[in-house]
């Protein structure tokens, strides 16, 4: 008797993003790399409320690293959240960090502080050897 193999189907339902979520105070994390910009909105406890990235907004290739993509990403991440005050934590050396901050400040949310949390080594690992071109 041959057993019929049941194909496991993932029952992961795709949820639409919540229309709006109200939080009195939140934290906006901007991660600006050389190739992409990721904006995450969390509440004070650190639970993610909304997030967006340049690739998620439809940008591909080198356009993901542009300031315009970072601005669009910040607006998209903030759109689903209604909050009065926010703290902004910016991480990374990318081009989009200033553009994302500009878009956040234009959105009407009162910023309590803006902090740069880019990790800096205190003479940690040895850097890779220099390129020979």
Automatic annotation (TrEMBL):
Gene3D superfamilies: Ribosomal protein S11. PROSITE patterns: RIBOSOMAL_S11. GO terms for molecular function: structural constituent of ribosome. It comes from the Eukaryota. Pfam families: Ribosomal_S11. GO terms for cellular component: ribonucleoprotein complex; ribosome. GO terms for biological process: translation. HAMAP family: Ribosomal_uS11. This is Ribosomal protein S11. It comes from Palmerella debilis subsp. serrata. The gene is rps11.
